[in-house]
Design goal:
There is one protein chain. With 389 residues, the chain is mainly alpha-helical. The protein has a 3-stranded antiparallel β-sheet with strand order 2-1-3, with no helix packed on it. Helix content is 67%, strand content 2%. β1 and β2 form a beta hairpin. α9 runs antiparallel to α10 and α10 packs antiparallel against α11.
């Protein structure tokens, strides 16, 4: 019999071996499932059905019967915390710390759990103490992350910077964006205290950490403007068109003020018209349209408006033209009326900003969401209004 025919005879053998292996695995699973307490399965079913309170009751009873089960104790403590029962979570996790038989990893995990319990309860001093006690290992990065959040909540920006640098070393991940924000906050404190030299120094440090970050660039331009250093301010703010063009609209007022002080407002208008092709944000459209009305007149501004209508469905920027003709509609040209009708057809009301993380809506831009407290989550939409907060 040739080689190919032998393979045909071998196929049934392979199927038989696979069937035997499957039978053995199923038998093993059945035997193992008999050793799992029925209350444990019951608790898992409650969790799967999102009946958290019932799951906690069942697992607490099970943990009493299985006091040596460390993992079960951690599970019960975590359930208490997630259910808002912080004191009960603390009791479980502190009970774990009293056990002499924990491994180093388990003890670090218990210390971290107690620190997180105190953090959730708002007892930051106690939380800080325990989080700092977490030793090396896989729980260290989690503890450092919580410490950063703790310091941010208390506006302790210097400490937040130090711990973020430690976290970068421990995790191998970059936290440059957050560190840049922390440094801007430090700069803001110095600016409020009247020390602009230190404020500028910290903003420079922030840009060294994250050169593409828009916030330190914007803050630096604002500080320079407040000092009357208008050319330097313009230089810093216009860097955004290369790094983060969508943020140009947020600094349009500052740029207009600087150019106005220097007597170069027409240059500013020309720059804005070019920037429209890069970023048709609401703020930039509004300021460009208003400047065109002021410097070039209504006819040119209307022509500009028609160009805008081809690139965006947001027409809120055209409110100034309504203001200009509402008191004397009889003097409005047919072209102006047609333009208004066209805008009315396209108009739609939109919220200015929406958090990409939690969906929180706001009418001003925030670098950190007021709801979920995440950084850089606000998208600049075409109808964006307001100034950075």
């Amino acid at each position: 019999m040739d080689f190919e025919n032998w393979w045909l005879l071998a196929f049934p053998s392979f199927f038989l071996l696979g069937w035997l292996a499957a039978k053995i695995d199923v038998k093993q699973l059945i035997n193992e499932s008999k050793n799992i307490p029925s209350t444990y399965i019951e608790g898992l079913n409650f969790l799967l059905n999102e009946e958290r309170d019932k799951a906690i009751d069942v697992l607490v009873k099970l943990s009493v019967n299985e006091p040596d089960s460390v993992e079960l104790q951690f599970a019960v403590g975590s359930l208490f915390r997630s259910n808002g029962e912080i004191q009960r979570a603390l009791a479980v996790h502190q009970g774990l710390l009293d056990r002499p038989d924990l491994t180093n990893a388990q003890r670090n995990r218990a210390v971290l759990a107690v620190g997180e319990d105190f953090f959730k309860s708002g007892m930051y001093d106690r939380a800080e103490d325990f989080l700092k006690r977490v030793g090396t290992g896989k729980y260290k990065a989690v503890a450092l992350r919580l410490l950063i959040d703790l310091y941010v909540n208390q506006n302790e920006w210097h400490r937040a910077v130090d711990v973020a640098n430690q976290l970068q070393l421990a995790s191998g991940q970059s936290y440059a964006s957050e560190v840049a924000h922390f440094m801007v906050e430090i700069s803001s404190q110095h600016h409020c205290d009247g020390d602009d030299a230190k404020a500028i120094d910290w903003l420079r440090k922030s840009l060294n950490v994250d050169p593409q970050a828009p916030r330190p660039r914007i803050a630096l331009g604002q500080v320079l403007k407040s000092q009357g250093r208008y050319l330097e301010a313009i230089h810093e703010l216009t860097q955004l068109e290369l790094e983060s063009s969508s943020f140009i609209g947020l600094v349009s007022d500052a740029l207009i003020e600087c150019h106005d002080k220097l007597g170069t407002k027409n240059q500013c208008l020309d720059k804005f018209k070019k920037l429209i092709d890069l970023s048709s944000s609401h703020d930039l459209l509004v300021k460009t349209f208003e400047m065109s009305m002021e410097l070039e007149g209504q006819v040119t501004a209307c022509d500009l408006a028609r160009k805008f209508l081809k690139t965006t469905t947001d027409v809120g920027w055209a409110i100034p033209i309504l203001e200009s003709i509402k008191n004397d509609i009889a003097e409005a040209s047919t072209a102006d009326v047609d333009l208004l009708i066209e805008m009315a057809k396209q108009y739609r009301q939109e919220e200015a900003y929406i958090c990409d993380s939690c969906g929180f809506l706001a009418h001003a831009h925030y670098w950190r969401c007021p709801a979920c407290r995440q950084w850089d989550t606000y998208t600049l939409t075409s109808s964006a209004k307001g100034v950075p907060a």
